[in-house]
Amino acid sequence: MILRILAGKVVVGHAIYNDFKALKYFHPKELTRDTSKIPLLNRRGGFPENVAISLKRLVKELLHKDIQVGKSGHSSVEDARATMELYKVVEAEWEQHLLLNPEQE
């Protein structure tokens, strides 16, 4: 069911290939937006562009929020919301970049 929902859609996630791997699913690169691999986010957060930064650190630096602080650890809903908030910070600029440089998806 979930795989049918994802088909043909742009999917946004943080280190999303881990999720795809768990699902034994391949999603087209051109339809995947992985916030752990968007250089603009790293640059805006003051991090090296070629290093995967944790969702927690990116959110703290760019959104000035603390996530993943509960006793139970990660909340998938909290992580998903934070990931979308991060993506929206650079969405217009990143999508324009991808249109002009499709090989960098």
From TrEMBL:
Family matches, as SUPFAM superfamilies: Ribonuclease H-like
GO molecular function ontology, one term from the record: nucleic acid binding
Coiled coil: none
Keyword terms: Hydrolase, Nuclease
Gene3D superfamilies reported for this sequence: Ribonuclease H-like superfamily/Ribonuclease H
Lineage: superkingdom: Eukaryota
Keyword Nuclease: yes
Family annotation (InterPro entries): REXO1/3/4-like (IPR047021), RNaseH-like_sf (IPR012337), RNaseH_sf (IPR036397)
GO cellular component: nucleus
PANTHER family for the chain: INTERFERON-STIMULATED 20 KDA EXONUCLEASE-LIKE 2, RNA EXONUCLEASE REXO1 / RECO3 FAMILY MEMBER-RELATED
Protein name: Exonuclease domain-containing protein
Source organism of this protein record: Patagioenas fasciata monilis
